[in-house]
Amino acid sequence: MKKINAVITGISGYLPDYVLTNEEISRMVDTTDEWIMTRIGIKERRILKDKTLGASYLACKAIEDLFQKTGTKPEEIDLVICATSTPDHIFPATAAIICGKMGIKNAFAYDIQAACAGFMTAFYNAANYIESGRHKKVLVVSAEKMSFMTDYTDRATCPLFGDGAGVALVEPTTEDVGLMDAILRTDGSGLPHLHMKAGGSACPASHETIDKRWHYVYQEGQVVFKNAVADMADVSEEIMKRNNLTADELAWFIPHQANLRIIEAVARRMGVNKEKVMINIEKYANTSGATIPICLWELEPTLKKGDKLVLSTFGAGFTYGSIYMKWGYDGKK
pLDDT value at position 2? Predict the structure, then answer.
């Protein structure tokens, strides 16, 4: 029997219409377009302005487009994994809400929380389900309304984040495409440096926590930067080495879009030419777990069957990892 691989057979995304520019942010806090571009590499970001809409709205817009592109029917889906740090509610799972909205009635659905590493973690989970033979059509969704937890009075963090969603359809194949290898790790040291201080069971919401603005992203930038560069580069180099991959063989290196300087530093350590590094942070900022599927969605028209891709990510926890895949179809089709 031939080995079953898990392959992405369709990719889509959604970005809200509203564009929040650096000029607008500079009217909120003491910053400038030049400062943000020099240190982070972000020019603008998309924001879901309607406060009554959450991550499930972003996800469903992406899924609607995916279903139309691939001719997939809701009843064909047998598993939905939603990676999000900004769920509609603490419970039920945003994946369950997505199923209700999209008419997906024959699927098991659940959320995972791996911060910016969410999509890659969800995709790895989906691949294991596919390879086991238990599931045939899996939706891997990452939807993030980061504006919900962004403090627009904090000049250090408010330029960083945007809203968006990406979704992949993952199916089995016996061809030599799809997920080839993955390295996912969590070192557990990241809590003090990147978290939301309040809102969970260890520090429930109260008047005090609201007054102290503890329900927003807290980040110690220098520590996160240092760990992100080291960890993303280490696992990306490791996955290339153990699969005998050279930088010349790669079609694309697709990193999490958190900071342009992080991306450039990791690519240099890997020896990957800038022309092969997918970068869209200038337009969309950091959409957390959604950055990588949004990158794949933008790249789709240029991708060819068999293209060798290395994905790399880093997020709160610290949780980080790298995936090596061979793309499964010609994007122009």
Answer: 87
Count of CB atoms within 10 A of residue 333's CB?
6
Measure the CA–CA gap between 129 and 171, rounded to whole angstroms: 10
**Cα–Cα distance list, 112 to 14, 21, 65, 188, 310 (Å):** 20, 31, 23, 17, 22
- pLDDT tens, residue by residue, 106-153: 999 999 999 999 999 999 999 999 999 999 999 999 999 999 999 999
| Catalytic (active-site) positions | 116, 256, 286
Residue 123: which of 65, 64, 166 has the closest Cα?
166
Question: Are 122 and 36 contained in the same domain?
Answer: yes
Secondary structure class of 199 (helix, strand, coil): coil
Its pTM stands at 0.98
The reply to whether 332 falls in a domain is no
- How far apart CA 140 and CA 111 sit, in angstroms, is 10
Closest CA to 316 of 269, 266, 258: 258
Rounded CA separation 213/196 (Å): 10
Q: Where do we find the tokens 């309304």?
A: 145
Q: Which residues of the chain have pLDDT under 50?
A: none
Q: Are residues 150 and 257 in the same domain?
A: no
Q: Which CATH number covers residue 57?
A: 3.40.47.10
In this structure, are residues 26 and 33 in contact, taking their beta carbons and an 8 Å threshold?
A: yes
